[in-house]
From TrEMBL:
Domain named Transposase InsH N-terminal: residues: 16-111
InterPro entries: Tnp_DDE_dom (IPR025668), Transposase_InsH_N (IPR008490)
Source organism, top-level taxon: Bacteria
Domain (Transposase DDE) ranges: 322-448
Name the record gives this protein: Transposase
Species of origin: Ensifer canadensis
Pfam families according to UniProt: DDE_Tnp_1_6 (PF13751), DUF772 (PF05598)
Length: 461
């Protein structure tokens, strides 16, 4: 016969959270690698010694980790889920009757203690240290890339970039505007490019108007990842405007910070052609001594059928180019009383052929049909680009290009699984906080997958 469901008539229950949460639950495995002992010490100077006890900062950290690890994008909904979900309660050490803090507590602490103490950066670096202890970082090679995340800014409420004035915005500036004005001289934001953007969002002027996705343009920030190519561990993350100059600058910041913080310097760096400018390659090769596994950003190839710069052979010892006809191109054909550097304002040197050689040359129509003589510019850091070109033909380069896909996979995971297709917080600080928490969550999930339990103490000593 048909059964019916009736409420049990027991008066007392013996209920254990630990027994009802599976042993292989993701949050259990994350908890094996989570060390929040330093949170209290880091935040202690920012709490008063008098008054009522505050909400435990470790509880808020654990709740934020749940939110970013499980793709819960609303703090209001996060509080509801922690209240109802047994696994979340176990992870937060709340038990069955522990009180969940109000969602407004996160905003108050985020704009105050969390940013003043830089606790989210501290949490991220603590997780990276755990990855190092667990042997997930080899430091043979790093990869760097950036991805666009839509900002919380509405196109319909934007103004023309030519009409917007930072000086006028100071009068009634909100929090996100104040944050932007504070970083106007920062290479990642205000000083990233002198170009006036087409549109500016008055509510979040640091967000960049961009059409990089080849569809409808939108306001966005760029999240920049520096990862180890062995296991795809995120070693550093940086928030910038969504323009190439800021992203390249962020890669240098992350490489320096990783070396200073963890003592890690890669043997090679792999990236796409956006990072292949002569200046950036020179910085890697000459200053950092890192092999650039990066396609050279080069606009010298011609499409009109005439010879490109690659058709001219460079003679380093003679400081000259040799053209396809075997004639030389040099900087100077006479000696000047006052020596000249030969450097142009664009940071190049010009090598010119002799007019006499070009007039008699059978290849003139394929070389310089509209000029009396051919000239070839050479960047001051062309030697660094030559290093990158030489590496591009090796088997190691092909392997590293394949391993670079791990950073693309992390961005896909960030947007599809963790649901960070759009930011909730505004301003440079809001973008930085969200990117740090998301990268922390991704590293914790990677630890939980590859190292589901702690290593014995003898192995970590």
């Amino acid at each position: 016969m048909m059964g019916t469901q009736a409420a049990p008539a027991q008066l007392f229950y013996n209920f254990s959270l630990d027994e009802h949460v599976p042993a292989d639950h993701l949050l259990r495995r994350i908890d094996n690698h989570l060390d929040l002992d330093g949170v209290r010490a880091q935040l202690k100077p920012y709490y008063s010694s008098t008054g009522r006890p505050s909400i435990d900062p470790e509880l808020m950290m654990r709740m934020l980790i749940i939110g970013y690890s499980m793709g819960i994008r609303s703090e209001r909904r996060l509080c509801e889920e922690v209240h109802l979900n047994l696994a979340y309660r176990l992870f937060c050490r709340l038990g069955l009757d522990g009180k969940v803090p109000d969602h407004s507590s996160f905003s108050k602490n985020r704009h105050g203690r969390f940013r003043q103490s830089d606790i989210l950066r501290h949490l991220f670096e603590t997780v990276v240290e755990r990855c190092l202890v667990q042997g997930l970082v080899g430091a043979e090679g790093f990869a760097v890339d950036a991805s666009l995340i839509a900002a919380d800014a509405n196109k319909q409420r934007s103004v023309s970039g030519a009409e917007w004035s930072a000086q006028e915005a100071k009068e009634n500036a909100g929090r996100s505007v104040q944050e932007y004005l504070a970083v106007l001289d920062d290479a990642a934001f205000g000083a990233a490019s002198p170009v006036t953007p087409k549109f500016v969002s008055p509510s979040d002027p640091a967000a960049q108007w961009t059409g990089a996705h080849k569809g409808h343009a939108f306001f966005a920030y760029a999240t920049n990842y520096l990862i180890d190519t062995d296991h795809g561990v995120i070693l550093d993350v940086e928030a910038t405007r969504a323009i190439r100059q800021a992203e390249v600058g962020a890669s240098r910041t992350m490489i320096d910070r990783t070396e200073n913080r963890f003592g890690l310097k890669p043997g090679y760096l792999v990236a796409d052609s956006a990072y292949g400018s002569a200046d950036n390659l020179a910085w890697l090769v000459k200053e950092k001594e890192i092999a650039p596994h990066i396609p050279v950003f080069d606009k010298s190839n011609r499409t009109d059928g005439t010879f490109s710069r690659a058709d001219f052979n460079w003679d380093g010892e003679g400081d000259r180019y040799i053209c396809p006809a075997g004639k030389e191109l040099v900087q100077f054909r006479r000696t000047y009383a006052t020596p000249r550097s030969g450097n142009t304002s664009e940071g190049t040197r010009l090598y010119r052929a002799s007019k006499k050689d070009c007039d008699a040359c059978e290849l003139k129509q394929r070389c310089c049909p509209n000029a009396v003589a051919r000239k070839v510019p050479r960047d001051l850091n062309e030697d660094a680009r030559d290093v990158a070109r030489a590496i591009a033909g090796t088997p190691d380069y092909e392997r590293s290009r394949h391993r670079r896909k791990k950073v693309e996979m992390l961005f896909a995971h960030l947007k599809r699984i963790l649901r960070m297709a759009r930011l909730r917080l505004r301003g440079p600080c809001g973008a930085r906080d969200e990117f740090l928490l998301a990268a922390t969550a991704q590293n914790l999930r990677r630890l939980a997958k590859l190292r589901p339990s702690r290593l014995p103490a003898a192995m970590t000593a």
